[in-house]
């Protein structure tokens, strides 16, 4: 061997003939089953390959690869392993000269197929063939991934073979092989998979991830969750962090594509998305922040629809029957994902996400008449209640920064909140700004949710958690005052009963108000405030226990027929609370002012819907034969535009509706274009009046009728006096 190596190095032009000769001998020995000589020939080729790096090595490599292919095509496991080991040695060599005509397609296919002999390996007690196949794939990747002259290994035709093969071996840990030693096929596969993904550029991520999704689909691996989560953890930690959002986008698209699949499959995808999004958020999520929440909210809505109709077809009595408990598990997974992902975002983005969610789904009372129209056209009564509960749970998950939610999972009068061991941090500047700008939307949402007749115990429990978490996570002195006013307003709501709420609902609102005031008085640590709250609670325990959570939020609550006698010492007094808190530096004037749901400037702007939206809404209502007493033109008018003359407004809208229904499209387009042209003309006139040309050293020019007019020329053409130039 030493002589052969010396000869090859001395006369490199002979390498191709040496390779051709050894190739011929090996082929003959394989055919005659002279395996000892086969091993000698391959050993010689390996050593020559390692020793020679001259320009003429390419022709020798062709002979070498031809022999490796011959061994891999053999049905003898030992020859397959021998060929694979030789290829791995070759893959680790960095060649000095490029090759323009070499192809590795066969090796990709063959190494990907070797795992199919798993049964033989297990029966014989050997896993060497699988190990060889994995090492071969690793070698192909190393040899081709950065070689621009080779066929693109990232093409779908190659990835569709490589990735499923790796996943099959990776899955072996879940099946026949439980060994986790560094030399096991599963561990070697994971290293190979990580290496492949680590080399993926921006444009290759999709081709690498798509086969993973297809493999999990075809083998029903979403439902188990564990393997799917493990796969995507490997992916997210292996790819470059700036490419993470591409994987998130593919998962979101795959979730949408499986919208009519079983709830367990969708829940599995959501769980994977939860893990992947949490990892991606620490690096780069890119433009997908709102897309994540948009998709999850859409899936939440679909799940509620499926739960209501009982089928995935959206038609009651359809063929694809749903399971309520599975849909509920999916909804919980979606809410956990929203909360977990939101907690990884910066504070300002969490606030924006909260606003996005509150604006995405109609909130009770935001546009009363418009919401009524939407509910009438699209929602069922029970669906409305379900949607509102999900919204509340999402808001709680977004606000819960320190995992305090489980401590407020049920409503109760807590005598000492120190036993809860709450995690409390100072409210951040971003949160203060958010509450200053958008707190009224949150308060209004809580207040109007309590007014809904369909609110049940889960709604009130979630409302309590929401109030508690706002007090802990987002509170400053002004917020505390407003929350106390809100709690007292809820008491007044239950007392006056302007919304004709059932007695159990009114008792529940009283209980919610009491439980929250008991909590907030301990958070403020004002003794006289705590004393008043505890005195009222003690009086209720003696006289009217049905106004406390322990007696109303049970399976069979004992409620009276009416609440007409609720007065006096069983009520929290706004004047008393304002007095005691005023002595501790709180805003007495604000405390004494009753809370009334307010519309912010943003709400007023959002109420001004376009005429086109009004028309489309009215046409849809009419097409569904909605009764006039439920949705009238008058209610739509009050929701969308400011009040003006009723008759004039009706006539004008009738003309607009008639025009948009009967006029041809070209006329409507011309009308809109004319208005745009008129606007531009007016703007040009304003600019001509307000914007004057800069003074010019070139003087003035004479206009018609003896008037002078300034002439503006470019600065670079101006002629300045010598004294002005230096």
TrEMBL record:
GO cellular component labels: plasma membrane
Annotated Pfam families: EFR3_ARM
Gene Ontology BP annotations: protein localization to plasma membrane
InterPro entries: ARM-type_fold, EFR3-like_ARM, EFR3_Homologs
Top-rank taxon, per record: Eukaryota
Ranges in a coiled coil: none
Signal peptide start and end residues: none
Family per record: Belongs to the EFR3 family.
Full protein name: EFR3B protein
Organism: Denticeps clupeoides (denticle herring)
Source taxonomy: Eukaryota, Metazoa, Chordata, Craniata, Vertebrata
The encoding gene: efr3bb
